[in-house]
Specification:
Layout (H helix, E strand, L loop, with lengths): L6 E5 L2 H4 L18 H4 L2 H6 L1 H14 L9 H12 L4 E5 L5 H5 L4 E3 L2 E8 L5 E3 L19 E5 L9 H10 L2 E5 L11 H8 L3 E6 L11 E4 L2 H15 L6
Parallel strand pairs: 1-2, 1-7, 2-3, 7-8, 8-9
Antiparallel strand pairs: 4-5, 4-6
Helix pairs in contact: 5-9
The structure holds adenosine-5-diphosphoribose.
Length: 243
């Protein structure tokens, strides 16, 4: 009896698009409206902290919109975690909380979380669903000027990488959903899996990503349609042999 293969799933902004949250690189995406250099680098925060805080305050406030809720794709991944007999690790590049709200638990936010903030002086990590400003005193050490979004900016190290690579090295199935494959290290996960040759790899996306040709299987369409169907297939037929 072979052991049940573990599954690693990577998600990107595309899985939250049908929940009403913008992606980054689509023509109507976030980076079509603001420059990464102005709001998503440590240099931007040092140069103009209020500009950066305002950018994340607007996105944090957007999460409170009652129209922004987990969609059928988020819910299907939570069902897969509940019903698959082996481990399912969900690694998301997204900083929204839609996977948690859908019920996913075994989850790594490798680019941080919009609803958390941290103090650069005392490293306190706090749940936060309100606006943040440079004048906000740290509830932990009381100092002002050090509170920042708990979001990984360009040039900073993504979170949870040791665990992620450990799980990529042992999984039987790697699934990439709703990401354009533009940003490393996430965009390199499929090569990491293919190099071992022991796992099946599937991309589910609205259109082929930069790395589409590296996947053994590519399924195109909106996430709310293709992800529930894919989860049904895996729960019914199991994980295909590594291609
Ligand atoms: N269903 C499935 N996929 C979709 C949908 C949808 N409804 N809508 C868009 N997509 C796809 C797009 O075709 C695109 O390939 O989602 C992908 C979104 O790509 P990006 O906007 O580049 O977002 P992402 O890949 O998550 O960006 C990675 O870059 O800017 C940084 O930190 C930021 O985490 C982000 C990282």
């Amino acid at each position: 009896m072979t052991e049940t293969p573990s599954i690693v799933i990577l998600t990107g902004a595309g899985i939250s698009k049908e929940s009403g949250l913008d992606t980054f690189r689509d023509s109507d995406g976030i980076w079509a409206k603001v420059r990464i250099e102005d709001v998503a680098t440590p240099e931007a925060f040092a140069r103009n902290p209020s500009r950066v805080q305002e950018f994340y305050n607007a996105r944090r406030a957007g999460l409170k919109d009652p129209k922004v809720a987990p969609n059928a794709a988020h819910e299907a991944l939570a069902r897969l975690e509940r019903e698959w007999p082996g481990e399912v690790l969900l690694v998301t590049q997204n900083i929204d909380d839609l996977h948690e709200r859908a019920g996913s638990r075994n989850l790594i936010h490798m680019h941080g979380e919009l609803l958390k903030v941290r103090c650069e002086y005392c490293d306190a990590l706090l749940e936060w669903d309100d606006a943040l400003s440079t004048a906000t005193p740290c509830p932990h050490c009381g100092r002002k000027g050090g509170m920042r979004p708990h979001v990984v900016w360009f040039g900073e190290m993504p979170l949870g990488m040791d665990t992620i690579y450990e799980k990529l090295d042992t999984c039987g199935l790697f699934v990439s959903i709703g990401t354009s494959g533009n940003v490393y290290p996430a965009a390199g996960f499929v090569q990491h899996v293919r190099y071992r040759g022991l796992a099946h790899s599937v991309e589910l996306n609205l259109e082929p990503s930069q790395g589409a040709t590296l996947f053994a299987e590519v399924i195109l369409g909106p996430a709310t349609e293709i992800v529930p169907a894919f989860v049904d297939r895996i729960l019914k037929d199991g994980v295909p042999e590594a291609a």
